[in-house]
Design goal:
The complex is a heterodimer of chains A (223) and B (220).
Chain A: H1 2-18, H2 20-40, H3 45-68, H4 73-78, H5 80-85, H6 91-120, H7 128-153, H8 160-186, H9 192-221
Helix pairs in contact in A: 1-6, 2-3, 2-6, 3-6, 3-7, 3-8, 6-7, 6-9, 7-8, 7-9, 8-9
Chain B: E1 9-20, E2 23-34, E3 38-42, H1 49-56, E4 64-69, E5 72-73, H2 78-84, E6 85-88, H3 100-109, H4 117-126, H5 142-156, E7 160-164, H6 172-187, E8 191-195, E9 207-210, E10 217-218
Parallel strand pairs in B: 3-8, 3-9, 6-7, 7-8
Antiparallel strand pairs in B: 1-2, 1-4, 2-10, 4-5
Helix pairs in contact in B: 3-5, 4-5
Classes of the chains: A mainly alpha (223), B alpha/beta (220).
Amino acid sequence: MLRAFYHLLLRDLRLALRSRHELINPLIFFVLVVTLFPLAITPSEALLQKMAPGVIWVSALLAVLLSLDRLFRQDYEDGSLDQLMLSPNPLVILVLAKVCAHWLLTGLPLVLIAPLLAVFMSVPDAALPALLYSLLLGTPVLSLIGAIGVSLTVAVNRGGVLLSLIVLPLYIPVLIFGANTIDVASDGLSVRGQLLFLGAVLALAASLAPIATAAALRITASR
Amino acid sequence: MSETASTPVLLRGQSLECSRDDRRLFSNLSFELKAAQVLQIEGANGSGKTSLLRILCGLRTPDAGQVYWQGENIARAREDYYSNMVYIGHLPCIKGDLNVLENVRALLDTRSKTLADEHIAAALQQVGLAAYEDVAGKALSSGQRRRILLAFLLLADARLWILDEPLTALDMQGVVLMESMLLAHRAGGGSVIFTTHHGMQLGCEMSSLSLGTASVEARA
């Protein structure tokens, strides 16, 4: 079972590394959107600092949303998804492997580049750890919840809009607490509560979202 | 145990029914498949052959009826059933960015099978892809992609093959190869359920199941 997880994770990472543009696109999108704000609004430090948490989190969320389709689209179109579903291994484990690969390829790069963007948005140095921790805990949730949406819409032609309609409302709690973490840290207060909440959401999503995704994939395959 | 007189029943479909967009494809369809039995599903385009095969592998839920693997419902016998069954559908299941060897390995990984390179190389040679191990999937013709699936079929070591149009895109030699693979599989006690629009001369005893057009009727 663990071997199946590991092999699928490795296969997805290998596939992504061979078509790198797909890997870089969400990252460039993230950087560009965040950079647009200081350009569009007066680059006053106080204002940017006030907006930074929301801007960074909304951009990260949209960048993940853009990359979600990749999670199952190719496997659905070339029939590999059928083979995954016919595997003797539990589908939940395979789903988890695919979501892990997705996070390593999209979420993690976003977390790593975030400090640079924090400088653009003049986030105080004291809030940097909070920014990193909130993204580190929050972005896996985005991949996990997104997987449910993709598995429901992968069979729909041009399901992109539908996907965002399904997924974005579910992202709201993560967005609120993620942005709030940075906000509170900028004011020099403790962010323990916020991080604990994000951690709880991650634990919940990691245990339930793969089950929902597996069920949704079965519905998709039975059409 | 008088009912399992000679050879045990591997797969049994009971009163299966399937509709698509308010059109009933088939209903009250029952059949039995024993070890070393070859079953051809016949029927015109749109008669529900693919839907039936997807129901038999549990990818699609029938509107009524049950499928049993060795006497147990396939939903409950899932792990045992899927360890012993290979389904190959219309789609190639081949990744353009992986080479032939990696593609075969990726397919085998879904079945948690790790084989030595020599094993895979021997199978690739048998299906006529001996010199192609390092060639990327996207550089192959559609017939060659189908041949990767044949190699997977050989290596998967399953008792039951469910094949949807296995001759698609194969050339003359490919068809001969497929036929010899089916015969060898049957000789080893394996069973096959397949659909085809091409003539297949197996030269062995073969049962068939017709999805008639008579059952195509509008649902009230």
